[in-house]
Amino acid sequence: MNPVKPGETPRTPWIVGVSGASGTPYAAAVLRALLAAGESVDLVVSRASRLTLLDETGIPFRDAHWQADLREWLSRGADGKPGTFEVDIAGVRHWSAGDLAAGPSSGSYPVKGMLIVPASTACVAGVALGLSKDLLQRAAGVTLKERRKLVVAVRETPLNGQTLRHLVALDDAGASVVPASPGFYAGATHIQDLVDFVAGRVLDAAGVEHGLYRRWKGELGNGT
Ligand SMILES: Cc1cc2nc3c(=O)[nH]c(=O)nc-3n(C[C@H](O)[C@H](O)[C@H](O)COP(=O)(O)O)c2cc1C
């Protein structure tokens, strides 16, 4: 047992769930921005997302070496260039996707909420139907039942009716559905800008401050 001593601030992390949709650079951008904002993170990487990470970056994600693998991943730019970012991962705690006894599988474990980025359609279905097939889905279900903030950055195209219905169910349950679809009005010139736009909108939905993209200020409007 590790009770909080009087005067001590309890660690209250954001859970970040990375599922097996394409878009691991979105997850990296969200993780970097949360850490830069001084937030702590509980990280859950699904089994399938290890394949997308390997495919998209060449980096494995191994439970036994998660710190080294995470450092390598977060240092990469969206163009794959190593050493683009310097990141201190001291605020990250990692839970294995199969660990259903982990902290985030209980509503009494203190967290601010959960961001699923990217969210696969399988993950969307699992959370909408309450399947809890792994820790990521269980933590998302717990987040909803505790009425905490859940942001779901779904990535698939096209979307079939079944997924659209699951997304409506998530919205009805109080989640924010944030499609991983970048806008082009913020002056993007590099892939990283487009990635950061999506990551920034995920953080907007969570209410976390960041400077990831240039906000629209009404330039073409006629405000006086
Ligand atoms: C390289 C690769 C890319 C994939 N991209 C997507 C995607 O963009 N969206 C999606 O819904 N599923 C995608 N999948 C399929 C999911 O990984 C698969 O449905 C998996 O069961 C998701 O499991 P999870 O939600 O537990 O991570 C992709 C799979 C691979 C191997």
UniProtKB/TrEMBL annotation:
Gene3D superfamilies per record: Flavin prenyltransferase-like
UniProt: dimethylallyl phosphate binding residues: Y185, R201
GO molecular-function terms, A-Z: flavin prenyltransferase activity
Domain Flavoprotein residues, every copy: 14-205
Enzyme type, top EC level: transferase
Keyword check for Flavoprotein: yes
Annotated binding of FMN, by residue: G20, A21, S22, S46, R155
Top-level taxon: Bacteria
Transmembrane segments: none
Flavoprotein is among the record's keywords: yes
InterPro entries: Flavin_trans-like (IPR036551), Flavoprotein (IPR003382), UbiX-like (IPR004507)
SUPFAM superfamilies named in the record: Homo-oligomeric flavin-containing Cys decarboxylases, HFCD
E.C. no: 2.5.1.129
Catalytic reactions of this protein: dimethylallyl phosphate + FMNH2 = prenylated FMNH2 + phosphate
Key words of the record: Flavoprotein, FMN, Prenyltransferase, Transferase
One matching Pfam family: Flavoprotein
Record function comment: Flavin prenyltransferase that catalyzes the synthesis of the prenylated FMN cofactor (prenyl-FMN) for 4-hydroxy-3-polyprenylbenzoic acid decarboxylase UbiD. The prenyltransferase is metal-independent and links a dimethylallyl moiety from dimethylallyl monophosphate (DMAP) to the flavin N5 and C6 atoms of FMN.
Record-linked HAMAP family: ubiX_pad
Family, per entry: Belongs to the UbiX/PAD1 family.
NCBIfam families: ubiX_pad
Protein name per UniProt: Flavin prenyltransferase UbiX
